[in-house]
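Late entry, evening session. Most of the bench is empty. Finally got around to the prediction I had been postponing all week. Sequence below, unchanged from the version circulated by S.P.
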Amino acid sequence: MEERIKEARKTLGWSQADLARRMFVTQPSVADWESGRKAPHMKNMARLAIMLGVSFEWLSTGRGEMHPSTTFSLREPSTDDWILPEERRLLSTYSRLKPQQRTALLGFLESLE
């Protein structure tokens, strides 16, 4: 799976940091997925398939076609296509914080990893 994630990412011309930003994870998380040190959680697998424009089956197992055989939009996926309700609440709350509060919250969240 790690090689497929890397292949799909590179096909789009994205760096690990680009993919991490789009997935709302850290760049080291993407590096772990691509090296095989850690596998993405199942909820991230579905997002990866959407973000990378590949079929879930190919990404997770290597079987089937890389790109979905059904017609799909080539537009950039919007946040509404894949964001979970609790993530939407978190982003909404974060957007209302003052800059100093945002920095403190990010420091706290990063300490949990």
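Two things to note before I forget:
Residues 1 and 106 are 30 Å apart (CA to CA).
The mean pLDDT is 83.
Will write this up properly tomorrow.
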